[in-house]
């Protein structure tokens, strides 16, 4: 069974590129154009991986992680849903914001495993997707 | 022109031609929608939304090989108070037309 990835990005060409790389890596994927839209999928489907843009107009990357974390804590406290996994969701930051400008919140529900800058050349982005997500080279794959 | 062709060829070698053509189409639509918005933000001195729009377009422009436009949007994103001006509005149209012609030529030859 393929792992599920969720792409959260307000910019559609970036979502298209990320989804293309994810399909090469044999992920199923869903797309959300902002954090608000993403929260439902995060809570209900618990994707294995989130590809997260950082600067978004409605709900940015930081707020998406912290709000989802708060909701997950409340759910766990009330014990109304037992299906939430104990494993943190892996997060790959996919953004043109420089890594030193990103304030990653400490959460139990998410673990940031990588950073890919959208300003990098497309071949470097492709290589990083493969390396971070599957420790696999996508060179020569279309 | 040949620099842009090289960029398209590079994109197509890492993605695939159909996807590059689709991305160019999305960018053309985004650009069409953004022209009036930048004009409006300039008139209203709405620098916050101008910066957000420039950020979004910066990524999509660079994703489709429109490097000059990407750099132009980068300047507006960083300092909208300084760089959102009539010169920007003229330049983005000029760069877009140059890009669009190159894109069409590449798509026709692909």
Briefly summarize what is shown.
The complex is a heterodimer of chains A (142) and B (110). Chain A has 142 residues and is of the alpha/beta class. Helices cover 39% and strands 20% of the residues of chain A.
Mean pLDDT of chain A: 90
Kindly state the percentage of residues in helix of chain A: 25-40%
Structural class of chain A: alpha/beta
Counting helices, strands and paired strands, the structural category of chain B is mainly alpha
Based on Cα principal axes, name the global outline of chain B.
elongated
Name the poorly predicted regions of chain B: none
**Rounded radius of gyration of chain B (Å):** 14 Å
Structure description:
- The complex is a heterodimer of chains A (142) and B (110).
- By secondary structure, chain A is an alpha/beta fold.
- Chain A has helices at residues 12-24, 35-45, 61-78, 122-134; strands at 4-8, 28-32, 49-52, 89-95, 110-117.
- In chain A, strand 3, helix 3 (61-78) and strand 4 (89-95) form a beta-alpha-beta unit.
- The longest helix of chain A has 18 residues, at 61-78.
- With 110 residues, chain B is mainly α.
- Chain B is built from six helices and no strands.
- The longest helix of chain B is centred in the first third of the chain and has 28 residues, at 17-44.
- The chains are: A alpha/beta (142), B mainly alpha (110).
- Chains A and B meet through helix 1 and helix 4 of A and helix 1, helix 2 and helix 3 of B.
